[in-house]
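Practice problem: Ketol-acid reductoisomerase (NADP(+))
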Amino acid sequence: MPQIYSQKDVNKKALANARIAILGYGSQGRAHALNLKDSGYDVVVGVRKSGASFAKAKKDGLEVAEPTEAVKNADLIAFLTPDLTQKDLYAEVIGNIKQGATILFAHGFNIHFKQIKPRKDLDVVLIAPKGPGDLVRRQYQQGRGVPSLLAVFQGGKKAKEIALAYADGIGGTRGGVLTTTFAEETETDLFGEQAVLCGGATELVVKGFETLVEAGYQPEVAYYECLHELKLIVDLLHEGGMTKMHQFISETAKYGDLTRGPRIVNKNTKKEMKKVLKEIQDGKFARQWIAENKSGRKKYNKLMNADLKHKIEKVGLKLRERMPWLQEERA
Ligand code: NDP
Ligand code: MG
Ligand code: MG
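Answer key — structure tokens:
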């Protein structure tokens, strides 16, 4: 078992009296900024005046400035805007970042794929929460924390202590902080979201829904079966792995799982997973995604529209109207 750091391992002096600039106020940025402020840090949010985040961060009671202003005098600068905006943002603000400061990422994409080549005097670290931003915030408020990964790209012991103190400030040490490298975090994070979490899971749901609807079953029944109920299973897995899931599902479900599951996600699926991983490792995925952005995201937009226009979305919208509590948790 690798070492997993908790609150007792934090050197509180590492970030004592630090001024922290959080660039971006979206999913991760908002959670990090609010958690760090509640942990007693001097936080400034750096977002463009023209965007919606500026007023939002102000309304939340935070100090806000344009990115180029926010980074001035900051000891730590966290890049928490979308991955493909960070290269330009770095170029925009680097002139105002003081010597010896620390820059921090929540995903290693730009460093690992060499989109950002950081100035040599800077410490360069990663704290990647293994969960979406709203959970990072909610868990912090509940006295809990989302487990996080820590990596140092540039810098020594001091850089690692600063990163761990930052993870502590956002609540990560409560869930456990595991050390990794920028390469491992980047490649496993991309693989996870492509093959299992986002790509794999939604494709499984949609194909299951289509199979039932095409066979003449009611779309509403297919929705409950293939999408709504997935949460129950995921919660059980999350809480106690397959052991706990098996304790809660019926004998018949278990037999169906064990005999039919491997036919649905089979050897070919795994072969394709290996290809997807290879494309991440050799940089093909990154090159494609960067090119897609440069050429105006035509393919991306087309695929996204098709996804959002799918029948399962129309059926789901109607059925979820009856369950307003589903919308209560996520601010
Ligand atoms: P978001 O998409 O939520 O970021 C939106 C924020 O970035 C807004 O404040 C927006 O400001 C600002 N922004 C958008 N475009 C630009 C731009 N061109 N220039 C300057 N600011 C801009 O980001 P995420 O939180 O999803 O991701 C941030 C980082 O965290 C990424 O590296 C991501 O990989 C990583 N990460 C994300 C996770 C998640 O759950 N989303 C999980 C773990 C890591 P405005 O209002 O002005 O548009
Ligand atoms: Mg990711
Ligand atoms: Mg999908």
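Discussion: The domain at 4-180 is CATH 3.40.50.720 (Rossmann fold). Students who identified this feature from the tokens alone can consider the problem solved.
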